[in-house]
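Quick one:
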Amino acid sequence: MRRRAENLTRNVDVAIKAVAKGVTIGVVDATPVDTGRARSNWQASTGTANMATVQPYAPGRRLGLSESSNANAAINQANRIIDLRKPYEPLFIQNNVHYIQTLNTGSSAQAGPMFVQIAILQGIRLLNGKVFLK
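Output:
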């Protein structure tokens, strides 16, 4: 029983991390891009939510969705935090730019409304058909 409990904890942790990484990729890639600020501000944190904002990793103007420097940097930063998460530790993925909700309502022609919710659903779908138990 103890071994099964340990395996369950480990498997739940693996699943949480997989979903978190999938959601992060989804929200980062779907975020409309002008200067790179909104895309760069997808952040992961553990324990408590990080309320800070960061400057764009690769600032510019009219960068567009194909821009990858800010996306890669944001995903890599988040993945480092996600990988360090301990079992039972709260995990947050958030964006603190003041206009992220406006972007999520579809204010940009680059992304439709509810891209955040869609990314969350896609992240959860990563679990469908996967068995983590060993």
